[in-house]
Amino acid sequence: MAATASRSTPSASPELFLDPKRSESTFEEIPVIDIRDARSSDPVARKRLADLIRDACINVGFFYIQSHGIADEVISDTVDAAKRYFSLPEATKLELDVHKTSNFKGYTALLGENTDSEGLGDLHEGFDVGWEPPIGLIDSPEANSREDGAMAGENVWPQCLPGYREAVLKYYHQILEVGKLLFPLFALALDVPEDFFDDKTTKPAAIMRLLHYPPQSPTSFETDPEGRQIGIGAHTDYECFTILWQDHAGGLQVQNMTGKWVDAVPIPGTFVVNLGDQFARWTNDVFKSTLHRVINRSGAERYSIPLFFGTDYNVLLEPIPTCVTPGSPSKYEVMTAGEYVKSRLEATYARSLIV
Ligand SMILES: O=C(O)CCC(=O)C(=O)O
Ligand SMILES: [Fe+2]
């Protein structure tokens, strides 16, 4: 179908989303978007912001956000917590081995994941956390009404690190609020009502990971000259979108349509946002779930914290009406978000070369 709508003059027409040019995107840079207007009640300002987000989602699948409102101290306390945890003896960390839980929470050792099916294991270790009420709010209505289906289960926490759980949950809940600000903007960007995701995101299905990447040593290139053992192998994320904090080490790369790896260089004061496969499913591939990887060649330890936002786990991943037309029919089998995420996690861990 021919598409004539210009991205700078958005319309409600589905043709806007079906512009063939969007799949030829050869971006060289990742846009930086100031999201201060996400908190504005001015519809014009919100629409302007949504238009910038739409452009990034259709052409790149990645963007940086600035003016997000999270204090540096909240971030640094969490990074310190991560450093303390990853410095523990391996045996202590393995007490919380992710394989001991049914919902993939806790510790993943170095090479414990193989994100790229062609890879030889990922050179990172991680600690996974799911939603739980903020400290002191055990009886929150959200906690009492959760139906997490395939992904149900509690977090696990190291008992030997005072303050760890507090720091991690404080960051988790603040970044969750940033995610909640973005969902209505994604809806606006898709020409559906701003509240489109409201009833689908009542119990945020949000997994957060603390990640530690040791520097990639020359030896790993000797044993793996083809570079199949890197920080995290080339992959797309599983949920709707990810908000990622990364330190100054660098190493995150994003692939454009020509196959070129573009560096997502660390920009102080920003988070990286990238779209995942649930959004590709919701939007019938109008929003790009872009391939990315990490190679830590900085010579220093690298730390990062992605938080993956999905819809509630019991919500069906069904294509958004503006993204489906007779000429562009729905591509994906409908399933719940929980079933989808669990199947992807199972596949990633099943490829692991260690058990
Ligand atoms: O550590 C990073 O910068 C990216 C991590 C990532 O892509 C992931 O965990 O899915
Ligand atoms: Fe990722």
From TrEMBL:
Region (Disordered): 1-22
InterPro entries: DIOX_N (IPR026992), IPNS-like_FE2OG_OXY (IPR044861), IPNS-like_sf (IPR027443), Oxoglu/Fe-dep_dioxygenase_dom (IPR005123)
Alphabetized UniProt keyword annotations: Iron, Metal-binding, Oxidoreductase
Residue span, Fe2OG dioxygenase domain: 204-311
PROSITE patterns: FE2OG_OXY
GO MF entry, a single one: oxidoreductase activity
Residue ranges with Low complexity bias: 1-14
Family: Belongs to the iron/ascorbate-dependent oxidoreductase family.
Protein name in the entry: Fe2OG dioxygenase domain-containing protein
Lineage of the organism: Eukaryota, Fungi, Dikarya, Basidiomycota, Agaricomycotina
